[in-house]
Structures are given as C-alpha cells and as structure tokens.
From TrEMBL:
Protein name: Uncharacterized protein
Signal peptide start and end residues: 1-28
Keywords from the named record: Signal
Phylogenetic classification of the source organism: Bacteria, Pseudomonadati, Gemmatimonadota, Gemmatimonadia, Gemmatimonadales
Domain of life assignment: Bacteria
Residue span of region Disordered: 28-47
UniProt feature, compositional bias: Low complexity: 33-47
Length: 47
C-alpha cells in the first residue's frame, strides 16, 4: 500500500529545494515574487 521509498524521496527533495528557494524570494516586492516563483518552479518541473 505504501509507495516505494525511492519514488517518494524524489518529490520530497524537489519540494525541499523549492521551500529553500522560496524564503529569499519572499522578501522581494509582490510584483517580482510571482514572477520569480514561476521561474523557480519551471526548472524542477522540466526535470
């Protein structure tokens, strides 16, 4: 019933990287925040 650990760790790592990349972008102006978040979300999604 439980998914394979190797498969579950991959998305977890991507989420961790996204969370770590989010803090530095948060302080940025609201106009740049969505744009920066969108650009940061593209690389992991493509990979």
């Amino acid at each position: 019933m439980t998914p394979p650990r190797s498969t579950s760790r991959r998305p977890a790592a991507l989420l961790a990287l996204g969370l770590l990349a989010a803090p530095p972008v948060a302080p940025a102006p609201p106009a740049l925040s969505p744009a920066a978040l969108a650009r940061t979300a593209e690389p992991p999604a493509a990979a």
